[in-house]
């Protein structure tokens, strides 16, 4: 945690110097120079425990620790025609250690797979015509770790209705991934696959948001996601009823169809009710329901708290069976409990500080938020996450 604090303190010092050199009143004109609109620094720590590791065939430790740091910068400018140009630049790095991944080699006391780093930069450009109420966007992203590489692209369009109370959105994303073929040690041999296998994802999203009245807002979303290529993970073991060990084998195509609705209701000046429901289905015959409720409450002009709760219920795919439950008659098989039938609960709260003179007296460093959440599911998996968000605006 010391490294996170030093990173945040360095950022605060830089922002204080930047704020001292900025003019205080820029509302009389639209600047044609590139300016910082917002900077977010988010640091989090995640810890997980359980006893259904996919690496060891559905049994064994799932202990995992992840420390994450993400820096998100939004820049903007107006051109001479009054068009707003936005750039969002994000860079994140995770360091995680996984006891289950260390069991890829059952004979080793510790191996390279026990810990890894993931680096994930992205950049998004959008062109917004405020007079016509329409926005066009383009984005590029990447994610790199030892055994997995992903490159993504996105294109999006949004249009306000004539009344400005509704907005249509459309987005298309693609991810072109490479999975390094790291097999369990006992399955390696001269004829075993090596190198990398490809996995491609194409996702389309349609949305419509509506301001129903001054207190009530709604958002509807429909996604269509097509995946193809190597959709298993090469180091996931599956033990058959006869005691033999095999490598996870899943179909090389998957079509996902999530549909969701989100609503916000302003209950007076100090309380907001935020609700969310999603239904999910795919052609692996996995279905799920998600219900989410968050209630931000302003307890003073500068402090608010946000308790939240999420319930998730999943009917798993027929490809799943536990340790030593599969037979040779199965064409596809996995012991990954993420694809099993289960219920889960995620609950916690956040507290947000927005002092008039800024955090630590830095006027433009206007928000500090701390959130904690606890997760548990009926398979025995549990986790805790705490995050800190500093916002400069």
Discrete helix count: 1
Average pLDDT: 90
CATH architecture: Beta Barrel
The CATH topology is Porin
Structural class designation: mainly beta
- Low-confidence segments, given as residue ranges, are 1-28
Total strand segments? 19
How are the strands of the biggest sheet laid out side by side? 1-2-3-4-5-6-7-8-9-12-13-14-16-17-18-19
User: How much helix, percentage-wise, in residues?
Assistant: under 10%
CATH superfamily: monomeric porin ompg
- Main sheet specs: 16 strands, antiparallel, barrel
CATH uppermost class = Mainly Beta
Strand residue percentage:
over 45%
Please give the domain count: 1
Radius of gyration equals 24 Å
Q: What coarse outline follows from CA principal-axis ratios?
A: globular
What does this structure look like?
This protein has 393 residues and is mainly β. The protein has a single domain, classed as monomeric porin ompg (Porin). Helices cover 5% and strands 56% of the residues. The chain contains one helix and 19 strands. It has one helix spanning 2-20, and strands spanning 35-49, 64-78, 84-98, 115-129, 134-145, 148-160, 166-180, 196-211, 216-229, 237-239, 245-247, 253-267, 271-282, 287-294, 297-300, 303-315, 342-353, 367-377, 382-392. The strands form two sheets. A 16-stranded antiparallel barrel has the order 1-2-3-4-5-6-7-8-9-12-13-14-16-17-18-19. A two-stranded antiparallel ribbon has the order 10-11. A hairpin with a 4-residue loop joins strand 18 and strand 19 (382-392). The two termini are 25 Å apart. 13% of the residues are buried. Mean pLDDT is 90; it is low at 1-28.
């Amino acid at each position: 945690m010391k490294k996170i604090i030093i990173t945040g303190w360095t950022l605060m010092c830089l922002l204080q110097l930047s704020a001292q050199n900025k003019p205080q009143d820029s509302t009389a004109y639209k600047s044609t120079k590139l300016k910082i609109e917002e900077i977010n620094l988010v640091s989090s720590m995640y810890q997980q425990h359980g006893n259904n590791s996919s690496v060891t065939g559905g049994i064994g430790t799932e202990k995992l620790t992840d420390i994450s740091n993400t820096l998100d910068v939004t820049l903007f400018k107006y051109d001479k025609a009054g068009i707003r140009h936005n750039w969002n630049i994000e860079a994140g790095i995770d360091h995680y250690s996984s006891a289950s991944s260390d069991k890829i080699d059952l004979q080793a006391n510790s191996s390279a797979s026990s810990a890894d780093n993931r680096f994930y930069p992205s950049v998004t450009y959008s062109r917004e015509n405020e007079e016509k109420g329409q926005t066009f966007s383009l984005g590029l992203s990447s994610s790199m770790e030892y055994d997995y590489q992903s490159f993504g692209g996105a294109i999006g369009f949004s249009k306000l209705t004539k009344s400005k109370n509704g907005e249509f959105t459309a987005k298309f994303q693609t991810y072109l991934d490479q999975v390094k073929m790291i097999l369990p040690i006992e399955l390696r041999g001269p004829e075993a696959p090596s190198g990398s296998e490809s996995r491609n994802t194409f996702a389309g999203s349609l949305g419509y948001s509506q301001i129903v009245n001054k207190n009530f807002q709604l958002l509807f979303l429909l996604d269509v996601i097509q995946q193809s290529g190597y959709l298993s993970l090469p180091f996931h073991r599956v033990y058959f009823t006869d005691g033999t060990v095999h490598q996870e084998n899943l179909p090389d195509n998957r079509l996902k169809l999530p549909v969701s609705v989100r609503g916000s209701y302003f209950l007076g000046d100090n309380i907001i009710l935020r609700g969310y429901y999603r239904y999910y289905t795919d052609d692996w015959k996995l279905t799920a329901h998600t219900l989410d409720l968050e209630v931000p409450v302003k307890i003073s002009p500068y402090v608010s708290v946000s308790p939240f709760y999420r319930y998730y219920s999943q009917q798993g795919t027929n490809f799943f069976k536990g340790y030593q439950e599969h037979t040779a008659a199965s064409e596809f098989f996995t012991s990954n409990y993420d694809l099993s039938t289960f219920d889960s609960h995620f609950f916690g709260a956040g507290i947000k500080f927005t002092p008039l003179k800024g955090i630590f007296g830095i006027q433009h460093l206007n928000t500090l938020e701390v959130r904690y959440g606890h997760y548990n599911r009926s398979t025995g998996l549990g986790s805790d996450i705490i995050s800190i968000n500093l916002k400069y605006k």
